[in-house]
Write a structure and sequence with these properties.
Layout lengths: L1 H14 L3 H13 L1 H24 L18 H13 L4 E5 L5 H12 L5 E4 L9 H4 L15 E4 L10 H7 L4 E7 L12 H14 L4 E5 L18 E5 L13 E5 L1 H11 L15 H30 L4 E3 L11 E4 L3 H13 L21 E4 L12 E5 L5 E5 L4 H17 L7
Parallel strand pairs: 2-3, 2-4, 4-5, 5-6
Antiparallel strand pairs: 1-7, 6-7, 8-9, 9-12, 10-11, 11-12
């Protein structure tokens, strides 16, 4: 009890959180303990898996140095890519600081594999907002896939959230070269795709047409399960280092993992034909990228626990949440339908106020590059834009859904939830009945 009083005192004194919010959070935390126990087991498995990969590749201090110039024969870069390939169960991987974000990793994957006249199909509905200009759904004269004669179509999910396999079958034509899925929710109201769902889809597509390449956008999904999409039949997948696999330490970068033939093609797009993955300076980042990967299973565990608490908290107050409290979680994102622009902005401002960096900044909606609507984003992070760190964002459009994710520790994720709820509570936008 003394410990509880100490915690309540520092939350009230240093963060000005209302007693009602503190008490309600503690009640909700007790309800999610079974989900927390399951997360502990998944994190334990993945920690052993990651450690085994480091030992297999004989990681040592020599891999933490760096070259200059072209970056030929960089032992740290080569070892990092072997570690990623081993962890994700693939033939090869491309792990580079030159990949600026997850969208860039996906863009070079698509443009590296597809050729004029090819067709790609997104099988989980439309892609994430920032890929729309890459594909050519919107935007003109920017070098989209559409401008190079690559066609696109999408297949919506079934009402129950599963992939419409029959719809995918109908959509496939002789021109179809790639079928793609997005694991995480993005800015949509749906559950993240589980590895089991992705594996079933990949097997189905390969049975229909073995030559079709199955690609997964794995952003926000790494280490949420015992397997990754590439271990369930996917040919290629991509993600960001400042999300799950970077563990909060990677300063920038992205990765692609999959079949070696495909990785080679993608590397030619990242640099140029004839050079591919043989060049590319790491700028001394091998240490932080590898250390971040080593810490990632535990960091992801804390973020997933925070998302589970957030979902339970707002569900029990009568809000619609996605995933639901009984759904299997397959990414670190928790969506909450708050219903008004004032509420989503207040929520994000509460998350920002909980940050260790830039806590004094007040987020406001703005025209963020790559997005069609104004976006409000809270991200007081050590690594700018890192969404494995505590963050929240929302497009300012109906029905006004906020997307909460991250937290390098569970305790910080919990603090963010309390401060977001407290901001809503004090503005009269949330009632703790």
């Amino acid at each position: 009890m003394e410990r509880d009083r100490n915690i309540e005192e520092i939350l009230a004194r240093r963060f000005d959180i209302s007693p009602e919010v503190i008490r309600f959070t503690e009640e909700e935390e007790r309800k999610v303990q079974p989900a927390f126990a399951a997360r502990d087991k998944i994190a334990e498995f993945n920690q052993y898996k990651v450690t085994a990969a480091f030992q297999k590749e004989r990681i040592s201090n020599v891999h933490f140095g760096w070259n200059t110039g072209y970056g030929y024969d960089d032992p740290g870069r080569a070892a990092t890519e072997r570690v990623y390939a081993d962890i994700f169960g693939t033939e090869a991987a491309l792990v580079r600081t030159q990949i600026v974000n997850g969208t860039h990793a996906l863009a070079i994957t698509l443009s590296g594999i597809l050729r004029p006249g090819d067709e790609m199909i997104y099988c989980t509905g439309g892609p994430y907002d920032t890929l729309e200009e890459v594909i050519g759904i919107r935007g003109e004269g920017m070098g989209s896939l559409k401008e190079f004669g690559i066609t696109y179509k999408s297949v919506d999910l079934l009402p129950d959230g599963n992939i419409d396999l029959e719809g995918v079958k109908r959509a496939i034509t002789e021109k179809t070269r790639m079928c793609c899925v997005q694991r995480s929710t993005g800015y949509s109201w749906r559950r993240a795709m589980t590895v089991e769902q992705i594996g079933e889809w990949a097997d189905y597509v390969h049975e229909l047409r073995p030559d079709i390449i199955c690609m997964a956008d794995n952003c926000y999904g790494e280490f949420l399960d015992y397997r990754e999409p590439t271990e369930a039949g996917v040919d290629i997948m991509a993600g960001s280092l400042i999300k799950n696999p970077g563990g909060g330490l990677a300063l920038s970068g992205g990765y692609v993992a999959g079949k070696k033939e495909l990785i080679d093609r993608i590397a030619y797009r990242l640099t140029c034909p004839g050079i591919g993955g043989e060049c590319g300076l790491t700028f001394g980042q091998s240490r932080t990228i590898l250390q971040g990967m080593f810490l990632a299973p535990g960091v992801v565990k804390g973020a997933a626990k925070g998302a589970a608490l957030c979902g339970r908290f707002f569900h029990d107050l009568g809000y619609d949440v996605c995933p639901g409290i009984n759904d299997k979680r397959s990414d670190i994102i928790q969506a909450v339908r708050l219903g008004s622009p004032e509420a989503v902005v207040a929520f994000c401002q509460g998350i920002q106020a909980a940050a260790p960096v830039d806590s004094f900044v007040t987020p406001e909606p703005w025209d963020m590059p790559g997005y069609e609507d104004k976006v409000v984003m809270a991200s007081g992070a050590f690594v700018d834009g890192s969404s494995i760190e505590l963050s929240a964002d929302a497009p300012i459009r109906e029905p006004y859904i906020v997307y909460y994710q991250g937290g390098l520790t569970y305790e910080h994720a919990k603090l963010g939830i309390m401060m977001a709820a407290d901001r809503l509570f004090k503005m009269g936008l949330l009632k703790l009945d």
